[in-house]
Amino acid sequence: LSWNEAPLPAVLPPVRLEINDSEGHSSSSHQTLKGTSKWATSLENLLEDPEGVKRFREFLKKEFSEENVLFWLACEEFKKTQGKTQMQEKAKEIYMTFLSSKASSQVNVEGQSRLNETILETPHPLMFQKLQDQIFNLMKYDSYSRFLKSDIFLNHKKSEEQEETPPEAQTAAKRASRIYNT
């Protein structure tokens, strides 16, 4: 397998935490990560969250590579398409938008020069899978790590954390800081 044919990892199950009380008794808690915490665990988790996709697109737009995530999303939508006519229409739309030499939002994938419109005559749900996997890996090993360090991600994470902290706790923290910093 080459790097672009590697299978995609399965979605991770929710994190199970063992919590012990003061007597050492175990109580199991089923905790699922949300928002930026979940986005930071994997690109798959980020792409499952509409808000995550929105923020990632915003980031990719600044990097002039938004077409990558748009192509990936179009392929995901294409897999759900029913009926040969609808499939042909959507396949043609994906081809003309992302893969054709005249595409308005062309993605850069291996083997693109060999693609032509004849593939559109006999569409099937996984016809773009190899190309979609290439784009996924490009995002995963390139833009995703930069996204996690970007202002877009970090500012969203910060605002999430502020929303989670109850106002009374913020006030208590401010009071404590005034007491101990005098």
Automatic annotation (TrEMBL):
It holds the Pfam family RGS. GO terms for biological process: regulation of G protein-coupled receptor signaling pathway. GO terms for cellular component: cytoplasm; nucleus; plasma membrane. Keywords: GTPase activation. Signal peptide: none annotated. It comes from the Eukaryota. InterPro entries: RGS, RGS10/12/14-like, RGS10_RGS, RGS_sf, RGS_subdom1/3, RGS_subdomain_2. GO terms for molecular function: G-protein alpha-subunit binding; GTPase activator activity. Residues 42-153 form the RGS domain. Residues 158-182 are annotated as: Disordered. This is RGS10 protein. It comes from Balaeniceps rex.
